């Protein structure tokens, strides 16, 4: 009972914080875009010269662009709360619809990369930690340190040049083959277009979790309970199985959930390099072409996405780790 | 067996010992030299050496052009170095400004406590709640692109983690006997911050500043690559790489490979300097 109420308070607090962050990010985004030299009317009509000055003025008045900023912010903010996020200027469709569709295809990419980097990073981290100081450890650590300093988009370019152009194993870009209708795209096509981008994204994510897990394993192996286990005659295998993996897995999972922010950031670049039609590419397009409603929508969605990751990490700690659970009871 | 026992008993004395500390110092010296050489070389390259040479377009790497040439025959090595020079200048500036913000807010929070501390923590959370890439894109749109946008954007996103580290450190120092006594003697908060707290966080600050640098240059190149940062006529690594995207399928690998690899090397070098400084400063690892 007590645990439940603790969880309830935690969730309410988190929810309140999410709301304050959302309101703040709305204000900050609005101010930033207000400062920008992009003229919404020009962005809307494009380079067309057929639209005269009077018509421009009419559009501006229709949108309420001649009203003071605060009034406009309130109008925009209330419509956001009511679920009307405006119309995307590049896609000429409601922002929520565009985001929903793009987010799904990004989600496929990010989910594959996230799982892959988590599992690989964890396994490599365990291996490096167990063989601390040996050659394997050095190789794994060198790999991690190189990848930490590697921009994801450059890795993507290299992969395209190597695997798609030189070796021809994978298609160069675009998530569907050219000349095929969206409905007719087979699962195999989709998969073959997903492999290279998600591989790039996951390779970048490995280093963080691997280095962290390695450090954790080293700490665990020098702890008293492992010494005692050795004294009891437990084999190295069973020590790793019983003590190391159990103790190292929770921090690793938590860290993986905390990495949603980097995952999203990485996806922006990877999608841009591979022309993958996801949220990341929509971000870049909306920014470059001045599609402010879509850009604002994406900022809000990304905040919720990152926040859900962080909250899951905290929740996991509270629910799974028996020590923290007890600490909260006391 | 005998030998081992003897070796342990013999005191080290004045004998030169090549340990972690010496290795770290040599690494720092070496990489710092390379870093400075690139900086000097970049500032010495004259503008006209980046000229068009249409007889030599798309030359693959050779002795005359180690990094090859691009679509108008400019030597890629020269372009890369000028690009690195620009990136490094931006990186240094952003690292220093982020560090200044971090040290001010990181100390002010715990020292003044209460609402100020809460606001600062909340600000850190706010910046971290949106992916860095998006924040930098937003800021550079607000500034209308260009150098100002990227510098402000990178600075705004990079002070947070160091602020957290410093804040945690200051929280500890605040509870130490000597700060408590100082407070009882009626010293002002400013005095405590300056005399007791600040000297204590200098090691963290130095390491933190150095470690911000690689992130800053990678972010600068990435955002420029997307088209939000430096304009296409600047000799930036991000511009070179986004240009190379056009020749992706035609097998001109040197256009992307060398500039990107140089950027990775520079950021690894600085990362290494930071880690080594950390090793020397930390008493546990300094004399192994």
- CATH C-level name of the largest domain in chain A: Mainly Alpha
Number of domains in the coordinates of chain A?
A: 2
| Biggest sheet character of chain A | none
Classify the beta-strand content of chain B into a percent band: under 5%
Report how far apart the termini of chain A are: 14 Å
Mean pLDDT of chain A: 82
How many strand elements of chain A? 0
Give me the CATH fold name of the largest domain in chain A.
MetI-like fold
Class by alpha and beta content of chain B: mainly alpha
Short description:
The complex is a heterodimer of chains A (330) and B (288). Chain A has 330 residues and is mainly alpha-helical. Chain A has helices at residues 2-35, 40-45, 53-63, 69-81, 95-130, 135-148, 152-166, 187-221, 224-231, 236-258, 260-273, 279-288, 292-320, 322-329.
Structure characterization notes:
The complex is a heterodimer of chains A (330) and B (288). With 330 residues, chain A is mainly α. Chain A folds into 2 domains: 2-67, no CATH class; 99-321, MetI-like fold (Orthogonal Bundle), CATH 1.10.3720.10. In chain A, 78% of the residues lie in helices and 0% in strands. Chain A is flat. Chain B has a single domain, classed as MetI-like (MetI-like fold). The two termini of chain B are 23 Å apart. In chain B, helix 3 (76-112) packs antiparallel against helix 4. Helix content of chain B is 73%, strand content 0%. The mean pLDDT of chain B is 82. The longest helix of chain B has 38 residues, at 189-226. With 288 residues, chain B is mainly α. Classes of the chains: A mainly alpha (330), B mainly alpha (288). The interface between A and B is large, with 48 and 41 residues.
């Amino acid at each position: 009972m007590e645990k439940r109420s603790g969880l309830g308070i935690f969730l309410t607090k988190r929810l309140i914080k999410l709301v304050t962050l959302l309101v703040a990010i709305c204000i900050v985004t609005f101010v930033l875009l207000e400062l920008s030299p992009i003229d919404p009317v020009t962005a809307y009509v494009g380079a067309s010269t057929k639209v005269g000055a009077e018509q421009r003025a009419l559009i501006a008045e229709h949108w309420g662009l001649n009203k003071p900023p605060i009034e406009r912010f309130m109008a925009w903010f209330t419509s956001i709360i009511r679920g009307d996020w405006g119309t995307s200027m590049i896609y000429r469709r409601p922002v929520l619809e565009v985001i929903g569709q793009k987010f799904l295809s990004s989600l496929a990419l990010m989910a594959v990369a996230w799982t892959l980097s988590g599992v690989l990073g964890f396994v490599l981290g365990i291996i490096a930690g167990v063989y601390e100081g040996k050659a394997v450890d050095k190789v794994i650590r060198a790999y991690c340190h190189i990848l930490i300093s590697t921009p994801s988009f450059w890795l993507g370019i290299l992969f395209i040049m190597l695997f798609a152009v030189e070796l021809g194993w994978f298609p160069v870009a675009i998530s569907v083959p050219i000349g095929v209708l969206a409905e007719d795209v087979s699962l195999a096509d989709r998969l073959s277009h997903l492999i290279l981008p998600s591989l790039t994204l996951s390779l970048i994510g490995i280093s963080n979790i691997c280095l962290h897990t390695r450090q954790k394993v080293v700490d665990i192996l020098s702890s008293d309970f492992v010494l005692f286990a050795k004294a009891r005659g437990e084999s190295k295998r069973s020590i790793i199985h019983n003590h190391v993996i159990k103790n190292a897995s929770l921090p690793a999972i938590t860290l993986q959930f905390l990495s949603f922010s980097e995952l999203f950031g990485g996806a922006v670049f990877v999608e841009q390099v591979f022309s993958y039609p996801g949220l990341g590419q929509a971000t870049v397009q909306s920014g470059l072409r001045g599609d402010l409603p879509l850009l604002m929508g994406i900022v809000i969605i990304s905040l919720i996405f990152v926040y859900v990751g962080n909250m899951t990490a905290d929740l996991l700690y509270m629910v799974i780790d028996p020590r923290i659970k007890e600490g909260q009871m006391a | 067996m005998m030998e081992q026992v003897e070796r342990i008993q013999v005191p080290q004395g004045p004998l030169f010992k090549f340990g972690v500390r010496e290795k770290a110092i040599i690494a720092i010296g070496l990489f710092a030299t390379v870093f400075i050489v690139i900086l000097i070389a970049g500032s010495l390259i004259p503008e006209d050496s980046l000229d068009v040479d249409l007889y030599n377009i798309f030359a693959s790497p050779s002795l005359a052009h180690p990094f090859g040439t691009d679509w108008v025959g400019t030597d890629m090595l020269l372009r890369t170095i000028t690009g690195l020079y620009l990136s490094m200048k931006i990186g240094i500036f952003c690292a220093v400004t982020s560090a200044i913000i971090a040290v001010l807010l990181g100390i002010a929070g715990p020292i003044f406590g209460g609402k100020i501390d809460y606001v600062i923590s909340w600000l850190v959370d706010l910046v971290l709640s949106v992916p860095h890439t998006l924040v930098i894109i937003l800021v550079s749109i607000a500034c209308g692109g260009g150098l100002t946008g990227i510098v402000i954007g990178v600075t705004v996103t990079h002070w947070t983690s160091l602020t957290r580290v410093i804040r945690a450190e200051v929280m500890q120092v605040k509870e130490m006997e000597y700060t408590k006594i100082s407070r009882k003697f009626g010293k002002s908060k400013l005095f405590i911050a300056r005399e007791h707290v600040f000297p204590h966080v200098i090691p963290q600050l130095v390491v933190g500043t150095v470690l911000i640098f690689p992130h800053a240059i990678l972010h600068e190149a990435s955002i420029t690559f997307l088209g939000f940062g430096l304009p296409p006529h600047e000799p930036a690594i991000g511009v070179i790489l986004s240009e190379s995207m056009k020749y992706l399928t035609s097998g001109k690998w040197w256009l992307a490979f060398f500039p990107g690899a140089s950027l990775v090397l520079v950021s690894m070098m600085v990362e290494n300097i930071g880690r080594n400084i950390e090793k020397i400063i930390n008493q546990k690892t300094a004399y192994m």
